[in-house]
Design brief:
- The structure holds two protein chains of two kinds.
- Chain A is α/β, with parallel strands linked by helices.
- Chain A contains 21 helices and 24 strands.
- In chain A, strands 10, 11, 12, 13, 14, 15, 16 and 22 form an eight-stranded mixed beta sheet that branches. Chain A has a six-stranded mixed beta sheet with strand order 3-4-2-5-6-7. Chain A has a five-stranded mixed beta sheet with strand order 19-21-20-23-24, sandwiched between helices.
- In chain A, strand 10, helix 9 and strand 11 form a beta-alpha-beta unit.
- In chain A, helix 1 packs across helix 6, helix 8 packs across helix 9 and helix 8 packs parallel to helix 14.
- Chain A is globular, with a radius of gyration of 27 Å.
- By secondary structure, chain B is an alpha/beta fold.
- Chain B has one domain: 3-Layer(aba) Sandwich (Rossmann fold).
- Chain B is built from eleven helices and 13 strands.
- Chain B has an eight-stranded mixed beta sheet with strand order 2-1-3-4-8-7-13-9, sandwiched between helices.
- In chain B, helix 3 runs parallel beside helix 5, helix 4 crosses helix 5 and helix 6 runs antiparallel to helix 9.
- Chain B starts with 25 loop residues before the first helix and ends with a helix.
- The chains are: A alpha/beta, B alpha/beta.
- The interface between A and B is large, with 74 and 60 residues.
- Strand 18 of chain A pairs parallel with strand 2 of chain B.
- Bound molecules: thiamine diphosphate (TPP) and iron/sulfur cluster.
- The site of thiamine diphosphate (TPP) has 18 residues of chain B, from helix 2 and helix 4.
């Protein structure tokens, strides 16, 4: 141990339990992912509410990467702007990492880079003799680089009271139950643990302790949740082109598609096609949707832009299909591995002409699962593409969640006529037209190819068409069709899509509106603001077009802050368009720095106006 | 010719809307042959899909098979839409129409990849060497050195789409001329039965923008210079599904190659001048290569091979169309969800 001279050794009364954050600084591709996963999983198993966020660069090996782990006895799961503890394992960032520690913080540093670190006497430093430990370890040299990050797991376990047997359980899980690699890694953890036990005196106040904050919960990424949603939602054709951060969503579908295998033959009922580009991926799901299958793709901004023409076609030809946009920082390739909510405007209006799309915005793994299956029902009921706007933070990071609820509604296929129903329809209405709006909700009845009826066929197209899908360039026909599409969008869709979550109490005059993954930061910020006497109401938007209740909420407050993780305040811009002059009392607070939102920024921003 | 087919339908029942193409356009002749093919074979229209990209050629599916579902997709992107539709329902057959601009330029990538995936459908390229719908620009198949009144001289070499198809791995590649009704008809009959993708590059003159005798894609040139590699006849065994038996017409014995199709049909080729065996890939490439250099216009079945597994087979999909699965098959059980959830604890 190297206790700073003027650092006050904590008395037992000062102990801080289960309420602090770590930042682990390593090099990308150095195997730190396993170490970090093991730590997060173990804390979760100890019953401590936890989140793990991977702040990584767009490269495979070598560049700096950070992993932040936050334990919160009060159950807050947002990223924390500052971390009390840093694991400094990367020489390239050690200066910055140690510099950023708050006073009283803790630095766990490998001995071979210690001399590069700035000297601070207001923090505690623990040194890991990484070379010595690795020399003692009985690890084949080929693996040694890959397991040396386990030394900090051992150090952290000893310093902060994590039981080693629980670490082993998590390791085993991480290696899918394979004992051999688990044991090899564990041996290194044990060495570091023992070294710290024998040689280092603990002088910082931080401790973990088992508690009961995660009972019954799961730890899962949003992309895994979305993939499971798709599998339980009946997806049949998936086509995609690899892109971070959406790839793991399709990987998840591949992992779980066996759940839908034919029971007798073991043959697959889910086709997954890796397309040659995003244009083709979009074309395939549109073809599949037209033919009557539940189809989806997953991509991020660069892919969404290539899909624009097809998205407009699907909107106008009224083809059910599902697009996931796991948003990352744009424009262009932007910061490809950093999170953002910056694709809302582009996606909402995707397509040329007067097109607009239906968007769902999940804010948690539970919702990623639910919207994952519901998106297909909505696509078929509305006969339209559905865009699920998630982001890198939800998609690729581990989140604590309630186990998913089995879909509580039967599969909804919308208005599809088989031969018999078509005959009946013709009997009732005289004729059938693909785009005839007999129910007044803007949604016609469709037939799918293969329907054995001489009148079943129609010709889907992106060109102007009448109610019978026949080519037309007549202005009156065009206008009638547009009016129906707008009605479907602003009336039928608006009511059918997931409604906002609202926490409202008449006595409060300040409102907060947000969407998606800002939820945890806002939950925390509202508590802390309330502690300072600023009580807020809250609305979380979950779909576009905006629900009418959003406007009601705005009208019910003196001031409403619209909080987003993009630079331009894009949701706020949509509000301005859809609610025109009625929202003068709103204020856009928008950040967009590539990081998951932290409560601190929200509190500071609101205090600037309210303080 | 009988006025009704095995399904009791007339040829009229296989027609579509009235064509709006320029009178005399080669594309209309091809539409007529598609109608005849489907009528003659007694194809059930509800099990047929007609698909296309964008262009004059791609408008034509509106003009045939009025009782089949159709999809006029995007410029060059028909192949991906067909792929999705046929993966969703592998029991459908599809006839797709594209132009040389549609396939040879903007759609080249999808063309190559749909072949590579072996999606089983008939891919017809109505090749006129120009962009028709956008009024006469050179396409990628236009002859090098060709002159057009407005756009001047084309200095770039032509892309041969039959060559490209063979290289990409197509197992049925043919070339024909829209003015040769008989040959187009036989090729279509063989193509619709092929289990893999069947590419037919049909020279289809644009009478409005590219009918100069100097163009190899013009009507006069096609008429003058067509060299059929063989006469083609499709011989169906008795047992094939609802379609009429095709009797073997008169042909000269001796110089005959029978090409076995997967469904038991034979394509019987009567060799003409050239000694071409379409089962030989290298020979197919050579013949096309030579023809290009000598400005010969070869037609017929240029390459044929027993088809590789289709994408649906390669993915081990259930044999029935996915769209026919009952709602129960779309959702695993609550117990399965509980098991998955337990693995995330
Ligand atoms: C993305 C896109 N780019 C350009 C066009 C304009 N466009 C319409 S048809 C066409 C060319 C059609 O030529 P070809 O495929 O040879 O068919 P033809 O009209 O000659 O039958 C073009 C460029 C378009 N519809 N979409
Ligand atoms: S412009 Fe050419 S290709 Fe188009 S319809 Fe007229 S003749 Fe046919």
């Amino acid at each position: 141990m190297q206790a700073p001279t003027n650092f006050q050794t904590q008395s037992p009364g000062d102990v801080i339990i289960n309420d602090f954050a770590f930042s682990v600084a390593t090099a990308n591709g150095s195997g730190s992912q396993t170490s970090n996963n093991v730590l997060v999983q173990t804390l979760f198993n100890m019953g401590i509410p936890v989140n793990g966020k991977n702040l990584f660069p767009s490269n495979i090996k070598g560049l700096p990467t950070w992993y932040t782990i936050r334990a919160s006895k009060d159950g807050y799961t947002a990223r924390r702007a500052t971390t009390e503890i840093v694991v400094a394992y990367n020489s390239a960032t050690v200066v910055e990492d140690v510099h950023d520690l708050p006073s009283g913080g803790v630095c766990i540093i490998r001995d071979d880079i210690q001399r590069m670190a700035p000297q601070r006497d207001d923090i505690v430093t623990y040194v890991v003799p990484i070379k010595d430990l690795m020399n003692q370890a009985d690890v084949p040299s080929a693996f040694s680089k890959r397991v040396e990050n386990m030394t900090y797991v051992g150090a952290v376990a000893q310093l902060f009271d994590i039981p080693l047997d629980m670490i082993y359980t998590s390791l085993l899980k991480n290696f899918n139950g394979k004992a051999k690699p688990a044991e090899m890694n564990f041996a290194v953890i044990q060495l570091a643990y023992d070294y710290f036990k024998e040689n280092v005196e603990k002088v910082d106040p931080y401790r973990f302790e088992k508690m009961n904050g995660t009972a019954g919960k799961i730890l899962i990424t949003g992309n895994e949740a979305g993939a499971l949603g798709a599998i339980f939602g009946g997806v049949q054709v998936v086509s995609w082109y690899p892109i971070t951060p959406s790839t793991s969503l399709v990987d998840g579908i591949i992992t779980y598609k066996h759940l839908r295998n034919d029971k007798e033959t073991g043959q697959s009922t889910v086709a997954v096609i890796q397309a040659e580009d995003e244009l083709a991926a979009a074309g395939m799901i549109i073809g599949a949707g037209f033919a009557g299958a539940r189809s989806m793709t997953a991509t991020s901004g660069p892919g969404i832009s290539l899909m624009a023409e097809f998205a407009g076609l699907a909107h106008y030809a009224e083809i059910p299909c599902v697009f996931w946009d796991i948003t990352r920082m744009g424009p262009s390739t932007g910061m490809p591995t950093r999170t953002s909510q910056g694709d809302i405007l582009f996606t909402y209006y995707l397509g040329h002409g007067d097109s607009h799309q239906f968007c769902l915005m999940p804010g948690s793994p539970e919702e990623a699962f639910e919207f994952g299956w519901r998106a297909f029902d909505l696509a078929e009921q509305l006969q339209a593409p559905i865009f699920v706007l998630s982001d890198l933070d939800l998609g690729m990071n581990n989140w604590m969640a309630e186990p998913f609820t089995y879909p509580d509604e039967p599969v909804k296929r919308g208005k599809v006529l088989n031969a018999e129903q078509l005959q009946q329809f013709i009997g009732e209405h005289g004729s059938w037209g693909r785009y005839l709006d007999v129910d007044g909700d803007g949604v016609g009845y469709r037939t799918i190819p293969g329907t054995d009826h001489p009148m079943a066929a129609y010709f889907a197209r992106g060109t102007g068409h009448d109610e019978y899908a026949v080519y037309s360039e007549r202005s009156d026909t065009w206008l009638k069709n547009m009016a129906r599409l707008k009605h479907k969008h602003y009336h039928t869709g608006r009511q059918m899509l997931p409604q906002p979550i609202i926490d409202y109490d008449e006595s409060k005059s300040i409102g907060i509106i947000t969407f998606g993954t800002n939820e945890p930061a806002i939950v925390e910020a509202r508590d802390l603001l309330a502690a300072q006497g600023i009580e807020t109401n809250y609305l979380r938007v979950r779909s576009l077009p905006l629900a009418e209740s959003v406007l009601e909420f705005i009208k019910a407050h003196d001031r409403v802050y619209v909080i987003e993780n993009n630079f331009d305040g894009q949701l706020h811009q949509i509000m301005k368009v859809e609610f025109a002059e009625q929202i003068a009392n709103t204020k856009s607070l928008s950040l967009g720095d590539g990081l998951p939102m932290a409560a601190r920024w929200i509190i500071d921003s609101i205090l600037e106006y309210e303080g | 010719m009988p006025s009704e087919n095995v399904l009791g339908l007339s040829r009229n029942d296989y027609k579509g809307r009235k064509s709006t193409l320029c009178p005399g356009c080669g594309h209309d002749s091809i539409s007529n042959q598609i109608i005849s093919m489907a009528f003659d074979l007694g194809l059930e229209q509800h099990n047929l899909l007609k698909m296309s990209g964008i262009g004059c050629s791609s408008k034509t599916p509106a003009y045939f098979l009025g009782r089949s579902h159709g999809f006029n997709a995007l410029h060059g992107r028909m192949p991906s839409v067909v792929t999705g539709a046929l993966m969703a329902n592998r029991e459908l057959k599809a006839v797709a129409v594209s132009g040389d601009g549609d396939t040879g330029s903007i759609g080249m990538g999808q063309f190559k990849h749909v072949i590579r995936r072996n999606i089983p459908f008939v891919y017809i390229i109505e090749n006129n060497g120009v962009y028709g719908l956008t009024k006469g620009q050179f396409s990628a198949t236009a002859d090098e050195g060709q002159e057009l009144k407005y756009y001047g001289r084309n200095d770039l070499p032509a892309i041969d789409l039959a060559l490209e198809a063979i290289i990409a791995g197509a197992t049925f590649v043919a070339r024909s001329f829209s003015g040769d009704a008989k040959q187009v008809q036989s090729l279509l009959q063989a193509a619709i039965r092929h289990k893999g993708i069947a590419v037919i590059d049909i020279i289809s003159p644009c009478v409005t923008f590219n009918n100069s005798e100097l163009s190899t894609k013009s009507y006069p040139y096609g008429k003058e210079n067509e060299i059929p590699l063989h006469e083609i006849q499709v011989v169906a065994p008795d047992y094939v599904e609802a379609k009429e038996e095709i009797t073997i017409g008169d042909y000269d014995a001796g110089e005959i190659i029978d090409v076995d199709m997967h469904d038991g049909t034979l394509v019987r080729l009567k060799k003409l001048g050239r000694d071409h065996d379409p089962r030989n890939r290298l020979q197919a490439l050579t013949v096309l290569e030579e023809a290009q250099r000598e400005e010969l216009f070869l037609t017929g079945l240029i390459y044929y091979e027993e088809p590789r597994p289709t994408l649906a087979e390669a993915e081990n999909l259930v044999p029935t169309g996915l769209v026919k699965l009952p709602a129960e098959a779309l959702r695993p059980s609550a117990d399965q969800l509980a098991d998955v959830m337990a693995s995330f604890r």
